[in-house]
Amino acid sequence: MRHLLDTRTLGREDAIMILDTAEDMSATQQREVKKLPTLRGKTVVNLFYEDSTRTRISFEAAAKRLSADVINFSAKGSSVSKGESLKDTAQTLQAIGADAVVIRHPASGAPDRLARSGWIEAGVLNAGDGMHEHPTQALLDAFTMRRRLFGDASRGRDLAGISVVIIGDIVHSRVARSNLWLLTALGARVAFVAPETLLPFGTREWPVTVHHSLDAAIAEERPDVVMLLRIQAERMHKAFFPNEREYARNWGLDEPRLARLTEHALVMHPGPMNRGLEISSAAADSPRATVLEQVANGVSVRMAALYLLLSGERGGTA
Question: Is the pLDDT of residue 316 over 70?
């Protein structure tokens, strides 16, 4: 695997390979000594132009548990604040010998530009670019679904026949896009639930069912998984819905809606959560919720991605 830039071009077999590799990585994390020598001598740079807690810490933990050297780069306090271009930053990383660059950037397409530019020889891993994609988040979500729904029989499995309902701020969500492409490749049925103002233009041309009523979606889709998305107020420059109370009433997962889910249905959220807005505390803290499992599983999935990027075949672009 040369780069991991999106899930739209990630095929079923490659996705299952990453998920199965993550199973192997997860097994090593149950041992007393969690570190592996696999990437000893490799340098991984976390290049974050946007704030992050879970993703950055998860990638740092993953790289260190594979014995890589880790350099954390934040745009704040760096020469980026003085106007340094992505090209010049990349060439600096090339000069210090970076083997892999994990990049989060506010501009959609920045990781792809970095990977194809020739500025740097390192493998590039997209940790979220604008409103485009966040592939490792989708992979850890799929990993969590497989484990919860299939248990010990999850290895080698896709998600054929599974119904997933994704609710909320779809228009600003790179998580929703990456999940749609990955889950579809794995055979799942995906539905979006949102007010019309929070759906991207052209959504109805995608392989997804669209609902505007969460109650109708629960009744019609009978979801195995409901995934709530954070309202991204920092990306909103106009009113997308009248007020938070109306949003919570119409599209929030409250206790009555939680009770109407099927007995085995999972409740997922990529975090951070706005409790009382897109999800109630009862739903967030229920045994159905996988929020903390998603965080823990993220380390295993990112270990798998880094391992395949730096230890596997270096041909082509994933």
Answer: no
